[in-house]
Structures are given as structure tokens and as C-alpha cells.
């Protein structure tokens, strides 16, 4: 069987736009929950905008895609499995042969893995253009206009398709359905989410002693509770360490709320007034919920840091090198270990006061 790789694309005039009904965009996505929150949120945003182009995601075995609010079977393709890869390949080749324009866009800018994947799709007649923010080998380069990865992709789509009105509302929707939560609290609640997918690296861990010191500062306010959220394997031990380390009169206002599922975590987030977290999945979930949050960031790239009036980022500014987001120990790069309690507490007070005045 001959593979048709060259389908003629008609040039556009200077004032013409792409016919979005004939465009398919294929994004890549990693397997972590935070990746699904962002890219699932992007597809959900496109749905809410009523865009006419088709948007798909090629992922690497993400267990979270079934949480997507609408049909995920025809939007998310697991290319880590032979069946998923072949299904996507067949769909894209058939679309290309019908004259559709197929754009491949990596979730992370400059991803070599994504570029190789898209290059193979082009060779197999299943892609028209590779699009990137900064990779010189891409067919189309759209310089990044925003910091956060969701904002970058939404802005990129508006620029590619000449639809500036898509940027009138830059908010990221929640990719999954979330039930309404009836009010049940009488005190302000500050959530703690101290877990990281890279907790074996010191750069991505904030010491327990500092979480405890922060809890003591917060609980000096008599109308505030702290809720420990999460589903980490170390959850029970961590909760007990913090509770027993607090003065006895504060312990009743330290609440443990373990989550057994992503849905449980979302419900827990909706019950609090503010979140203190590391740069992890809870950060992106809280951002989608428009929850006031303070995020501690060490060796994490800026593309994973949300923006907005409800967000405060506390960074380590003492690293000798910029962050690389790599999964290895490097003392020259920024580290959570160097972030002081006072800076986090100050950011929390600031975000509380700003959100209370709005």
C-alpha cells in the first residue's frame, strides 16, 4: 500500500483565515494528573468557545483521561499502546487524504520527543505541519506570548487562527465534572498540599519542620482551620507529625482530609478558602477552580506556574543556575529547601487580603 505524504495545500490570501472546519490539531501530553488538568482544560476551553476545528490529544498512558467531561474516547489517544497509536495514525491519515490540514503541537515547548513523534507522523502521511513555540526545526513557529502553559496554548491558537476574541476570557476551565458543594464551614480554611511527584529529590520537597512552623503561624488566628489534603503514601505519618507538633490548643483546628481519588481531591479543594502547595497537580486543579493559592516553586520551569490575581508564586531566588525541571539532584539550581517560612506566610496574608477585598 502506497502512503500518500504530499497533499497539496492551497495558499491563503493576506486577509484570509484558515477554514477551521477543515483543521485538526493534535497535541501531545504526558501522563501525570497536572498534565491532564492543563491539556484537558484546553480542550474543554475550545468546547466552551465553540471552535470549529478538531482538537485531539496523543498521550503516554495517562490514567486520567476518562475523567474528561465529554467523550474522551475520540479525543484522547494512548500512543504508548500499539492499538492507540494505530487508531490515531489511521484517523489522521484518512483526514489528511480528505484534504484536512493537520497541525502537531507539543504540550511542552521545544520537546524533542514530541518533534520526533510528529516527524514520524509526517513521514507516514498523517500530519501537515509541526508547530512549536521555539524549536527551529518546526514548520511553523509561534513565539510564546504568555508564561503559563495553558495560557501559551490558548494564545497560540488565537494567533494561528486569527481569533483574538478567544482571549477575552483567559480562564482555564476544569476538565472534569465537579459536583456543587454545600457550605459547611464556619471558619476560614487553609489547605495544605505538601506532596510532589518528585519527592525523592530535595529540590522538590519543602521540609516538614517548615510546614509545621507555617501551620503554627496560621493557627494563631482563632478563626482559621488548616486542612491537610492529599493521597500520598506518607499521608498518615505526615498528618500525625504535624498534629502532634502543634500546641495542644491548636490541634482541633488541624483537619486531615485524605483523598482516595482525583474526584475526592477536587471536592476537598472546593471546601477550602486558600491553598498552599508545591508545583504539582493540586496547583493546576486549584487554578482551574479559581481558588486563591500560594505555590512554592524550586527547580520548576515558569511554564508550569499559573498567573492571575488569585495566585502567589514563592520562588527560591538563590540558585546559581536557572531551573531546568529535570529529574535529578543539582545543588546549583533553585530548591524548595531554601524557601523560608516567612516568605510563604507573607504571600498567604497578601492573597487573603487581596481576595477578601475583591
Structural commentary:
By secondary structure, the protein is of the alpha/beta class. The chain folds into two domains: 20-167, 3-Layer(aba) Sandwich (Rossmann fold); 188-357, Rossmann fold. It contains nine helices and twelve strands. The strands form two sheets. A six-stranded parallel beta sheet has the order 3-2-1-4-5-6, with helices on both faces. Strands 9-8-7-10-11-12 form a six-stranded parallel beta sheet, with helices on both faces. Strand 7, helix 5 (208-218) and strand 8 (224-230) form a beta-alpha-beta unit. The longest helix has 17 residues, at 33-49. It is elongated and about 70 Å long.
CA-CA gap between termini: 63 Å
Q: Count of helices?
A: 9
The amount of helix comes to 25-40%
CATH superfamily of the largest domain: Glycogen Phosphorylase B
CATH topology of the largest domain: Rossmann fold
The tally of strands reads 12
User: Widest sheet: strand order?
Assistant: 3-2-1-4-5-6
Low-confidence stretches: 1-5
Strand content: 15-25%
Structural class: alpha/beta
**What Rg do the Cα atoms give?**
22 Å
The H/E string reads EHEEHEHEEHEHEHEHEHEEH
Q: CATH class of the largest domain, please?
A: Alpha Beta
What is the CATH-assigned architecture of the largest domain? 3-Layer(aba) Sandwich
- What's the overall geometry? elongated
Largest β sheet strand count, sense and barrel closure: 6 strands, parallel
The count of domains is 2
Overall pLDDT score = 90
